[in-house]
Amino acid sequence: MCGIVGYVGARPALGIIVEGLRRLEYRGYDSAGVAVLGKDSGASPDEGLDLITVKRAGKLGNLEQELAAQAPESAINTGTTGIGHTRWATHGSPTDRNAHPHRSRNGRLAIIHNGIIENFAALRAELEAAGVEFVSETDTECAAHLLEQELANVRAELAAGTAPAALADSRAEQLAEAMRRMCRRLEGAFTLLAVDADTPDAVVGARRNSPLVVGRSEGENFLASDVSAFIAHTREAIELGQDQVVLITPHAVHITTFDGTPTEGKQFHIDWDAAAAEKGGFDYFMLKEIAEQPRAVADTLRGRLSPTGELMMDETRLTEAELRSVDKVFIVACGTAYHAGLVAKYAIEHWTRLPCEVELASEFRYRDPVLDSSTLVVAISQSGETMDTLMALRHARAQKARVLAICNTHGSSIPRESDAVLYTHAGPEIAVASTKAFLTQLVACYLVGLYLAQARGVKFADEVRAVLDQLQQMPGAVDQVLETMDAVRALARDLASSRSVLFIGRHVGYPVALEGALKLKELAYMHAEGFAAGELKHGPIALIEQGTPVVCIVPSPVGKDSLHDKVVSNIQEVRARGARTIVIAEVGDTSVRPYADHLIEVPATPTLLAPLVTTVPLQVLACEIATARGHDVDQPRNLAKSVTVE
Ligand code: AGP
After folding, report:
1. CATH code, 18
2. 179, 167: one domain
3. Could you tell me which residues are beta bridge partners of residue 117?
4. Cβ(409) to ligand 1 under 6 A?
5. Helix extents (H) in 357-508
6. How remote is the CA of residue 334 from the centroid of ligand 1, in Å?
7. Gap from CA of 521 to ligand 1 centroid (Å)
8. Residue whose CA is closest, atom 10 of ligand 1?
9. In terms of domains, do 130 and 213 share one?
10. How do residues 9-53 score in pLDDT, each as one tens digit?
């Protein structure tokens, strides 16, 4: 939540920052703001720099309108150092006043923040007692005032000769030292970036429990919540570790821990380009990301077999013996990733014969789950920064469990803190509603199931290979589904005025029903619920009125016979009570036709892999209904892509 970007170099900073914010807007869009260090063209060479901040409530477009009114030669348009922020509100409503950047009392420092400073009430009381007047309701403003105090302390110590001599020659290092001192006083989760009008050509950043990456280039450097903010300028990046402070100048990147020990971040090369983060001719990122699913599924499968025919993770710090000793699997995740976990349970238990429990990450540690060194915890997260999942992972590790991350974001916190990682190679997912990330999480979950089965010796290599061959057919199957979506789009327009839509499924169709309902809720703001089809008769069937749309996910008739027939009976039950049935079934499944008011056919797939195709029409349905209702499907209200608070 909240996107942040910083730039220092030789080019005007403003355009680079605003462009970065546009790419980070998926992280929050309650307000946006920038701070630039610059000098008006008429200023004399002896005059120092000014700090110019502009911020506006609402989406980035509001800020851009305001910026467009600034004269081209003005300091904000010519300054070459700056920071920018796009906000998902936590402390304080989304107003101009609460928008970031926040200035310190003397007006010379500006700071932006992602996260929550948990001890802000105590800090604010302390600052107010010292005479500081707050102008916003945010926790961030504390940091602005504290940083000013710490910087003044550093400079006073230098004047008195009591500060380390190494700081004397560099105002930028003094600013970094002030940031370190301040961070040691903060509790909670924060990424902070600051600029100081008296420290030209420097941006200082810090991170704890919140993401921050550095982009490195010739004569200029960048800081951002994720690489998409600077991918148009450089593909060389450094991931920052926990509790680290970074100072960027045009020609250098200095990283230290909060206590001042120099350290190096992990360098990496970004293997996708700027075009991957653009809409590419689609009206919405979500439409583009739905269309990208065949390729994303193929990319996640790519290169998974070693030359000797064994499945491979991206990173594993687990030994074969540790994997063999696993006697229980827990999956922790949130939202759509949780639904992927629910599907994974069926595959993992079926293939490995290990018990597998799936938990909402936000609930996991509160119920004191039984974990030990023979428990494998699988943490699934697209962003790799979801705080609920990160805290569940940490709880698991504290209990000595092994953690394997399934993640789409290189260098993010969740994979970094895990014992093993399997990356989903979905490419950047910008739309708030998860689509290609879900399909690739499913693929990754299947691979984890097969990997465990292989390591534990419960499946022969040729059996693993057979499932992999089936998985290799799935990009083509997803492609076929996408080609037949016109009818779904027409149906969506017809359903746009419905009051409520229900979704039912059994076995792996049940999590698909949950996912279909989640998509509709978050995008169309409609009442939607997913149910296990067999559970309907225990209460929810009372919801059905004449014409209530019920989406029914039907398993393959060539899979488990009883499963298929039971779902067909459930369709008849809801139809008998007046439901308008929208049936998603395998092509050629004639048995459902008499009970389907609308039939959506998907290619035949093995039972366990069916969610890879049955989910796609539900994504299209939700996207189209939301569009028909006039909503921005990329940025639904009240939400953010990356949820870095608990
Ligand atoms: C679904 O469309 C949402 N974007 C949301 O439920 C999401 O899946 C959840 O917040 C988890 O995010 P993560 O995968 O980044 O951890």
Report:
1. 3.60.20.10
2. yes
3. 188
4. no
5. 361-364, 387-398, 413-416, 436-456, 461-472, 474-483, 486-495
6. 6
7. 13
8. 335
9. yes
10. 999 999 999 999 998 988 888 899 999 999 887 777 778 899 999
Same domain, 158 and 258: yes
Report the alpha-carbon distance of residue 382 to residue 408 in Å, rounded. Answer: 5
Of ligand 1's listed atoms, the one at least distance from the Cα of 389 is 16
Give yes or no for residue 432 CB within 6 A of ligand 1. yes
Phi–psi pair at 16, nearest 5 degrees? -65, -40
Distance in Å, CA 520 to ligand 1 centroid: 14
The residue segments making up the domain with residue 559 are 478-634
Task: Using the predicted structure, report yes or no on whether residue 411 has a pLDDT greater than 80.
Answer: no
> Residue 639 phi/psi, 5° resolution?
-110, 170
> Given the CA of residue 642, which atom of ligand 1 is nearest to it?
15
433 lines ligand 1 (CB under 6 A): yes
Task: For residue 615, give every residue at least 6 positions away whose Cβ sits within 8 Å of its Cβ, in sequence order, or none.
Answer: 438, 439, 512, 515, 516
Same domain, 34 and 177: yes
The alpha carbon of 380 and the centre of ligand 1 are apart by a number of angstroms equal to: 10
Distance CA 568, CA 563 (A): 9
Tokens in use for 153?
A: 């302390």
CA 402 to ligand 1 center in whole angstroms: 23
Burial of 87 from C-beta contacts in 10 A (0-12 / 13-18 / 19+)? buried
Ligand 1 atom with the shortest distance to the CA of 409: 15
Which residue of 88, 226, 336 sits with most ligand 1 atoms within 8 Å of its CB, as the best mutation to test the pocket? Answer: 336
Amino acid symbol at 335? G
Buried b (16+ CB within 10 A) or exposed e, 54-83: bbbbbbbebbeebbeeeeeebbbbbbbbbb
Beta strands in 565-637 (DSSP E): 580-586, 598-602
Pocket test of ligand 1: the residue of 26, 338, 360, 382 to mutate, having most ligand atoms within 8 Å of its CB, is 382
CB-based contact 636:433 (threshold 8 Å): yes
Region 176-181: what's the mean pLDDT? 98
Q: For residue range 630-646, what is the model confidence (pLDDT) as tens digits? A: 999 999 998 888 888 78
Spatial distance between the Cα atoms of 22 and 251, rounded to a whole number of angstroms: 26
Locate 620 and state its tokens. Answer: 């299209």
124: tokens are 């604010």
Lowest mean pLDDT among 314-318, 428-432, 546-550: 314-318
Q: How far apart are CA 9 and CA 286, in angstroms?
A: 34
Q: Which of 556, 567, 558, 566 is nearest to 504 (CA)?
A: 567
Residue 483 shares a structural domain with residue 606: yes
Predicted local distance difference test score (pLDDT) of residue 561: 64
Q: Is the CB of 435 under 6 A from ligand 1?
A: no
- Give me the number of domains the chain comprises: 3
Please, what's the b/e burial string for 370-402 (b: 16 or more CB within 10 A of its CB; e: otherwise)?
ebeeebbbbbbbbbbbbbbbbbbbbbbbebebb
Continuous H helices in 224-356: 285-291, 293-301, 320-324, 335-352
Eight-class DSSP state of 441: H
152 occurs within a structural domain: yes
- Identify the three-state secondary structure at position 433: coil
Q: Of 604, 582, 282, 612, which is closest to residue 444 (Cα–Cα)?
A: 612
CB of 434 closer than 6 angstroms to any ligand 1 atom: yes
Pairing of strands 81-87, 3-8: antiparallel
d(CA 409, CA 384): 6
Instruction: Verify whether ligand 1 is closer than 6 Å to residue 60 (CB atom).
Output: no
Whole-angstrom distance, CA of residue 7 vs CA of residue 9: 7
Of 34, 71, 32, nearest to 52 by C-alpha is 34
Q: Determine, yes or no, domain membership for 642.
A: no
Q: Which residues have a catalytic role annotated?
A: 2, 641
Can you tell me which residue has the tokens 């990301």? 289
